[in-house]
Write a structure and sequence with these properties.
The chain is globular. The two termini are 22 Å apart. The chain has 436 residues and is mainly α. It has 20 helices and no strands. The longest helix has 34 residues, at 218-251. The protein has helices at residues 4-7, 9-31, 33-40, 44-52, 58-74, 76-95, 100-128, 134-159, 164-185, 192-203, 210-216, 218-251, 257-282, 288-309, 313-329, 331-341, 348-377, 379-399, 409-417, 427-430. Helix 7 (100-128) crosses helix 17 (348-377).
């Protein structure tokens, strides 16, 4: 049933607002991190804790683990009915934060909401898309993800003269968008793929827990290892950048808060261009292995420039352009696409929840470690580590690129598991299967 409702364009736009709110809340916190640290007298550990429990890391990790399972059990629309209410509740904590615990609680609540929405969003977009426009629709969702930081950082520059009040107003803007998104998403129809699978599961005489099937099958385990490898090592870099990059620009490069936010806004504008003119336009037409490789090389090259050329304005702009475009066409876009393609409907959301938990949980640990490396070992060491992480993601994604372009989700599932539904849990049949 994939490809319903004219390719899912209307649904993609409504659901993509979740991506805007995801990235938006991360960078809203990042753009004011120095201001919050000064206001509450935070040390490096407290700064790292804010990043670790936010939508950038542990908060989103736990939210995804829960949200992915709920999306498979109760439907994609179930998440859209309640999730953004939680998001707005968390934002209010930050807007009215009077102390560090209140600020931390707001970051955590928003993180839980963001994580819960991600598996449902990518699953829903893929299930509603035509097979010839699935990468395009994922690209549109990535466009929304990149527009969030571009807009928030631009607003951050405009509101910078207001100091901490300006940062609070950024979260007010997110609440307004969340209200609009919640109203739109409540009008969405449920995914037909999920409804059909739910009906099959209800009629089944023998039932087993989806996670047991997920982890007992060698095909699934290989898919999880591949996708976590692609996304984890890239996201350790991107996650640290999303939350700490303004802090790095200011403390290492000597830039002002406005200059740091201006660079971040420019970077996300290039990411938006890469998402739309790159991934959305070309993702359904070109060879995925070559496309992924180009984006991964650009990402690694950007950090080579920043680490070893330095933070001159020329070096900074080369870094911003290379990373910005690569982020639009690179690992996250391909992860969103492949994670929704490589698993059957019955645990598509749950599988994404598990993987997102592993990735963002690791990013949470890195969010505590990265500021300490930066403070004690210096930026050159931290940058070299970033380059190494990106090279690992480059190798994994390029060598084991799945061949799924132009195929329906049903066709992909049949090729990977066979026509017999019982093949999903038949260990003999699954032995020796590889990611195709």
């Amino acid at each position: 049933m994939s490809g319903q409702s004219s390719g899912g364009k209307k649904e993609t736009i409504a659901v993509s607002l979740t991506n805007y709110l995801d990235s938006g809340c991360i960078v809203a916190g990042a753009s004011g991190l120095t201001l919050w640290a000064e206001h509450f007298g935070l040390n490096s550990f407290a700064v790292g804790l804010l990043g670790a429990l936010s939508a950038n890391a542990f908060g989103a990790a736990v939210g995804a683990l829960v949200g992915g399972r709920l999306a498979d059990k109760f439907g994609r629309k179930f998440i859209y009915t309640y999730n953004l209410l939680v998001y707005m509740f968390g934002a209010l904590f930050i807007i009215f934060a009077m102390n560090f615990p209140m600020l931390l609680a707001g970051f955590l609540i928003m993180g839980l909401s963001v994580g819960a929405g991600v598996p449902a969003s990518w699953s829903y977009i893929a299930e509603m898309a035509h097979p010839d426009s699935r990468a395009h629709n994922i690209g549109i969702s990535q466009l929304a993800w990149s527009l969030g930081p571009a807009i928030i950082f631009t607003l951050g520059v405009i509101l910078a003269p207001l100091g901490l009040l300006g940062n609070r107003l950024l979260f007010v803007s997110l609440v307004i968008v969340a209200i609009v998104a919640w109203l739109l998403q409540r009008q969405l129809e449920e995914s037909k793929d999920w409804e059909e699978e739910n009906a099959r599961q209800a009629a089944a005489t023998e039932k087993s827990h989806p996670y047991k099937e997920l982890f007992s099958n060698v095909v699934n385990r290989k898919s999880i290892a591949f996708l976590v490898g692609v996304y984890l090592f890239w996201n350790l870099v991107a996650g640290a950048m999303g939350f700490f990059m303004p802090f790095v620009y200011e403390t290492v490069g000597g830039l002002t808060n406005s200059q740091a936010n201006m660079l971040q806004a420019a970077m996300w504008i290039f990411t938006s261009l890469g998402s739309y003119f790159g991934f959305a336009k070309l993702g359904d037409k070109v060879d995925h292995r070559k496309f992924y490789f180009i984006g991964a090389v650009m990402a690694a090259a950007s950090w080579v420039v920043l680490t070893f050329v330095g933070m001159s304005w020329l070096g900074l702009w080369v870094f911003v352009i290379l990373w910005g475009i690569s982020a639009g066409i690179g690992a996250q876009a391909f992860y969103a696409l492949w994670a929704s393609e490589l698993f059957p409907t019955k645990f598509r959301g749950g599988a994404q929840g598990v993987m997102f938990f592993l990735v963002r949980g690791s990013c949470g640990i890195w969010s505590i470690v990265f500021p300490m490396i930066l403070a004690n070992l210096g930026f050159t060491v931290a940058g070299t580590v970033m380059i190494g992480l990106l090279l690992v993601s480059l190798v994994i994604g390029t060598v084991w690129t799945p061949r799924t372009r132009g195929k329906t989700l049903e066709q992909i599932t049949q090729e990977r598991y066979g026509n017999n539904e019982e093949a999903l849990i038949d260990s003999e049949l699954s032995q020796g299967q590889e990611v195709k």
